[in-house]
Amino acid sequence: MAREFAKRFYKSAAWQQARVQALIRDRGLCQTPGCFAPAQEVHHIIELTPENITDPSIALSLDNLQSLCRECHQNKH
After folding, report:
1. To the nearest 5 percent, what fractions of the chain are helix, strand and coil?
2. Which residues, listed in sequence order, are joined to residue 43 by a DSSP beta bridge?
3. What distance in Å separates the CA atoms of residue 65 and residue 73, rounded to the nearest whole number?
4. Nearest-CA neighbor of 66 among 17, 32, 15?
5. Per residue in 13-56, pLDDT tens?
6. Rounded CA gap, 29 and 48, in Å?
7. What is the pLDDT of residue 1?
8. What's the predicted TM-score (pTM) here?
9. Using CA atoms, how far apart are residues 77 and 16, in angstroms rounded to an integer?
10. In this structure, are residues 29 and 36 in contact, taking their beta carbons and an 8 Å threshold?
11. 41-57 burial string, b = 16+ CB within 10 Å, else e?
């Protein structure tokens, strides 16, 4: 679940577009080694904080996004 400071960001068109691009790049599959489940979520490798959420190189860059299944995403957090 998104933290309060990030809820608005996750509803933005910019995030939705970046999320779709990450899922397409990763062919809709979880990127955890050994896991071949369909990806349902997109994870920020460098975690979003109130300080960096407005930095597109962290919040929206494909270099900082990873497609994951729900289980693997929960394990990361």
Report:
1. 45, 15, 45
2. 66
3. 12
4. 32
5. 999 999 999 999 999 999 999 999 999 999 999 999 999 999 99
6. 22
7. 62
8. 0.91
9. 21
10. yes
11. bbbbeeebeeeebeeee
Q: Residue 37: how many CB atoms within 10 A of its CB?
A: 13
Per DSSP bridges, beta strands 41-44 and 65-68 are antiparallel
The one-letter amino acid code at 49 reads T
**Residues 67, 29 contacting (CB under 8 angstroms):** yes
Q: Are 23 and 39 in contact (CB under 8 A)?
A: yes
Distance CA 72, CA 12 (A): 24
Name the amino acid, one letter, at 9. F
CA angle 50, 75, 46 (to 5 degrees): 35
- Written as one letter, the residue type at 64 is N
Distance CA 63, CA 61 (A): 5
